[in-house]
Design brief:
- By secondary structure, the chain is mostly helical.
- It has 6 helices and no strands.
- Helices cover 74% and strands 0% of the residues.
């Protein structure tokens, strides 16, 4: 088991610089989504947005560590997000149940496909 310092060094040096920058983007998007709903009660559906972003952020951080399971999880989250966006008809429910970075996460999936051979 690696310590936190080694883990941070690995996720910043193993992949190309683009992956670390995308990780920072995900981290800021997660913090922003938490800030948007911090006054909502925990039972509110608005907390689905930070939950989605937290899952995306966690998967991308481990993708920066070049883990195949994390890359496949990120791809799976993106596919589930697209399915929800296509199948749910109500715009209010669709906006609550999907993530807010929709077109960009598909681009990030393209980055995963390009560098997939490097993953462990």
């Amino acid at each position: 088991m690696r310590n936190l310092q080694t883990f941070i060094k690995d996720i910043s040096r193993k992949p190309p610089l683009l992956f670390a920058l995308v990780a920072l983007f995900h981290l800021f998007a997660f913090i922003y989504s938490l800030w948007n709903v911090h006054r909502e009660p925990l039972s509110s559906l608005a907390w689905l947005q930070p939950l989605w972003m937290g899952a995306y952020t966690l998967c991308w951080i481990y993708t920066c560590d070049l883990r195949k399971w994390a890359a496949l999880s990120y791809l799976g989250l993106t596919v589930i997000n697209i399915i929800i966006m296509v199948t749910v008809k109500s715009p209010d429910v669709r906006d609550l149940c999907t993530n807010s970075i929709f077109p960009i996460d598909v681009l990030f999936c393209f980055f995963i496909f390009v560098f997939y051979k490097r993953f462990d």
